[in-house]
Amino acid sequence: MSLSTNKMFYVSWEAFHRATKELAHQLLGKNYTAIVAVSRGGLVPAAILARELNIRVVDSICVASYEHDKQGSLRILKDASIEDSEQLLVVDDLVDTGETAKALREHFPKACFVTVYAKPQGKPLVDHYITDIEQDTWIQLPWDMELAYSKPLADK
Ligand SMILES: O=P(O)(O)OC[C@H]1O[C@H](OP(=O)(O)OP(=O)(O)O)[C@H](O)[C@@H]1O
Ligand SMILES: Nc1nc2[nH]cnc2c(=O)[nH]1
Ligand SMILES: [Mg+2]
Fold first, then answer.
1. pLDDT tens digits, residue range 8-37?
2. Given 3-state DSSP classes, what are the helix, strand and coil percentages for the chain, each rounded to the nearest 5?
3. Would you identify the CATH topology of the domain 7-147?
4. Which residues line ligand 2 (CB under 6 A)?
5. Which alpha helices (DSSP H) does the chain contain, by range?
6. Whole-model pTM above 0.80?
7. Using the 8-state DSSP alphabet, how is residue 84 labeled?
8. Where in the chain are the domains?
9. How many whole angstroms separate alpha carbon 49 and alpha carbon 28?
């Protein structure tokens, strides 16, 4: 979905950290040995999961989604150098339409694909996620926001 919706789900750094740690709890004890972060959104949860699960091998795959007529296809700008395996965690911040997840699952068919947030359309494509978000809601992530003054209600 695009940012045309006015339903927003605002995520603070603290809430993002808490939800990602909850994801780490779900993955603990499963013996993952490496992480591939789906850049850019997956970089932040990947760092948190690497710390919590004591995983020191962390790589990234850099992708860009096409817009307009080629919607759904994904361009790999830089591939990961880690091989696909059942001990590999592929991490993204969220799944929306599922197009990114679909392409990454094809790229890493053995790996475990996880996100922090999932919308209904993309949910079947993730192995683990923490928070359900409605399809028509835009997730505002903390790195896309800044603190700003808010007028008192009486002045609005
Ligand atoms: O399920 P989908 O509809 O494919 O959407 C999910 C993808 O969209 C966002 O990335 P985006 O392409 O905005 O780029 P970024 O991570 O570089 O910000 C998000 O980080 C996921 O990777
Ligand atoms: N920040 C953000 N990026 C997205 N990419 C696809 N869906 C979303 C969303 O809801 N929020
Ligand atoms: Mg992304």
1. 999 999 999 999 999 999 999 999 999 999
2. 30, 30, 40
3. Rossmann fold (3.40.50)
4. 1, 94, 96, 138-139, 141, 144
5. 13-27, 43-52, 99-107
6. yes
7. P
8. 7-147
9. 10
